[in-house]
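Task: fold both queries, return C-alpha cells.
Query 1:
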Amino acid sequence: MPELSREQLSTAFDGTSLFEAKTWQLSPQAWPLTSRQVQELEQIGEACLHFHQSLENLYLRSSADKNLLRNRKLTAPWVAEYLDRGKPARLIEHARDDRNRGQFPSVLRPDLLLTEDGFVMTELDSVPGGIGLTAFLNRLYEVQGDVIGASDRMLHEFYRSLAALSVQGSENPVITIVVSDESATYRPEMIWIAEQLQQRGKRVYCLHVDDLFPLGPTLCLDIDGNPEKIDVLYRFFELHDIPNLSTADYIVEAWAAEEVAVTPPLRPFQEEKMSFALFHHHLLVDYWKEALPAKSLKKLRKLIPQSWVIDPVSLPPGAVLDAPPAAGRPLADWTQLDEASQKERDLIIKISGFHETAWGARSVIYGSDCSREEWQAGVKIAIDDALTNPHVIQHYHKPRRITHPLYPEALKQAAAGSPAAIDRQGRLRLCPYYFVTEGKTQLAGALATFCPPDKKIIHGMQDAALLPCRVVDLR
C-alpha cells in the first residue's frame, strides 16, 4: 500500500484555502476499517433514518395528543412539550405543517465512539460540517485503494440528495448552500464543494445568507447581474440563529409558496439531543418497539447510550426520578446529582439543542473529568435552564485505546527532513456521512478523528489526526 509522505500531505493542504488556519496531525495512512465494520456502518445509516421517521411520528402524534400505539392506549403530550421548549411559536407551527410531513435531513452524520463493546453513538447530527473535508481527504488518500467515498462519491451523493428535492423537477436545478455568520468557520469548505460541483456542470453556489433576495414568491440569487431562481436551499445554519438572519422571512415565504425546497427542514425537534433520552424513556418502550423495524430497534438499543432529560419537578414522598443514582441512592430531586461520587459521575451533561453552545462540544461537562464544584455548577445550570434550554445527561462510554501511525508535526508545522511516522496510541471517533435520497441512505464517506489517549471528549483539535477511511480486511 503506498503511504503518503508528510511533504505530499503538507503540499496538498497548503494548495487549498479549505483548511485555512486549521492544524491537525498527519498520518501516512487512511483509517482502516474491516468490511464487516463497513457493513455495520451501512446498517447504522438505515437505522438512523428509521429513527428520524419514528421520531417525527412520535412528535406529531404527541403534539396532537393522539394515541401512539395500534392496539393499546398510550398518549404522551409531554413529548412535544419537551421538544418544543424554548422554541418560538412560529417555528413550532412550521415544524408541524402538513407540507413538512415526511421531510428529513438530506445528510445524517452520527458521532460514533469505538469502545471495547463496539460502536456507541453519542449524537446524531443533521447539519454536519466536514462534508468537503472528508471529500478532499478521500481524494487525497485514494491512491491507497478501497477508500470509502473514493471517486468523489461524497460530492456525487451530496448533490444527488439535494437535486432530488427540486420542487420544479429540473434536471440541473439551482442549488444554494447558505452559510450564516455563526457558521462562517465552515464557509471555505462549502465554497470548495460548490466550486467542485460547478466544475462538473452543476449549478451549485455557496452564498452568505444576506445574498438571497425575493422576486415575487420566489427566492433568488444574483448571477452575473441577473436574478436566478433558487430551486433547493441547503441551510448551513442553526435554527436558533434564525432571528439573526436578514433573509429568514424570504426563505420561509418561498418555501410556503412551494417555490423552494429547504433542507435540512426547519424543524427543531429533529435536532434535539433529548431524542436519545426519549428513545430510552420507560414510558415509550412499547412505542419504539412498534414504530421501528426489529433490526433497527436492536441496532439502536446497542448504539444509543442511556440518556435522561433533566427536568426539575416536584414528586410525592417516596417517588423517585428516572435518572442515574447519586451517593448510591435513586434521585428524588435533580439537585441530588450534586452528591454523586466521582465514579457515579461517569456522565455527560450537555444542552439539548437550539442554542449557540449546542454544537462543537461547547456545552459538554464530563463529570469524572471535572471538579465537584464544576460538576455542581453544571447541574445548577441544567436545572435553572430546564424550561428554556433543556439539558440531557448521558452515560459516558470510554473509547478504547488503539494505535495508528502519525507524523511528529502538525499540519502547518511540517518541515522537510522530519522523522518518519511512528505508531501512536489514541482513541477514535468515527463520523460516517449518509446522504438521504428517495427514502434511502447511502454511506458515501467516513471521517476518523484520532485523538491522544488523554483526551476525554473527542472532537476536531490540533492534537488529533483527521483521516478518511478505507476497507482493510486483516488476515
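Query 1 returned. Query 2:
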Amino acid sequence: MEKVRLGSTGLLVTRTAFGALPIQRISHDAAAALLRKAYEAGVNFFDTARGYSDSEEKIGLALADVRDRVIIATKSHASTGAELRSQIETSLANMKTDYVDILQLHNPKEPPRADGPDSPYAAAVKAKEEGLVRHIGISNHRLDVALEAARSGLFETMQFPISIISADKDLELIDACRRNDMGVIAMKAMAGGLIRNVRAAFAFYRQFDNVVPIWGIQRESELDDLLRLDAEAPEFDAEMSAAAEAERQALAGDFCRGCGYCLPCPVDIPINMAARMSLLIRRAPEENFLTEQWRERMMRIEDCTECGQCRERCPYGLDTPALLRKNLADYRTFAGDE
C-alpha cells in the first residue's frame, strides 16, 4: 500500500486508513476480525477515541501483538490536565500498549492554550516527554478553531471533516496545515454515509499529498471495497470531478453531518440520525428506516422541549430543532402517515 508522510510527525501512514468509530456497534470478535483483516491487507494507520465506547478495547484485542507495526491515533475530550492524564492511562490499558502514536485533543470549542498548569495541552506535552505520547494533534469541526490551531504551531496533525462536498473555505485548511507542516487527517469521508459515490470520494483525496482519510468501517464488504480501490486508485479526473459536483449539489445547504456532538438529548431523540432522515431515506435503502422502531424514534421529535442544548452544541451552527421538525414532516409524508 502507498504511504505518505504525516506532516512533522514523520510517520509514514497508509493512504487508506481505518476509522474505528463504527466498530463500537459490532461485537468484539467481529471487530477484531475486521481490524486484523485490514492490518493483514497492509493498512497501518488506525484512528479511535476515548469517547468511542469500546473501540479502543477492540483495537487492543486485535492489534496488541503487532503493536510495533501499526500507528494508532486516539483522542481525549478532557477539559483539564488531570482528566487528560487519566484518559491517556485508560486508553493505554484498553489498547494494551505503553504509548500512543498520536494523541489528539478532541473537538475543543476554543483553540487550546499552551499555558496553564492544568491545561490539557500542558498535560499532553508532559505525557509526550514521558514517552506515553509520541505526537500531539487536534481534531475539530469548527473551521475558525481549526485554522487558529493550525497557525499556533502547537500541533503536528489536524483532524477535520474534509470530503468531496467540502466548501472551498474548508479546503483552505489543507494549505494552512501544509504551511505549518501539519498532517491532515480527513474525517467524515462519506459525510456520515450520505455520499454515495465511493470511487469519487476515494479519488478526491489523492489530489493532496498531506491528507489521509480515515474511512469509518463497520462491515467486511466496506473494507473490501476500499482495498480494491486502493489497489487501483482512480484518478480524480474530469469524470470524477463531475461526480463530486453532483454530490455537492445533492447535499447543498444546511444538513446534519451526523457527528453526534448535539447529544445527549433530554427527551432521547436520536438527533444525529433524525435530523438527516430526509436524506437517509433517499440515499440509503429506505426499508432500513421505514420500520416501527424508527417511526417511534422519529415521533419523539414531538416531545422536543426547545431547550436549545442541541443548537448550542452543533459545531455547524444548525438550527437543530427546526431541522428535526422538517425531517419529521418529511418522514411522515414519505411513510404515508399524512
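Both queries returned. Flag for query 2: The mean pLDDT is 94.
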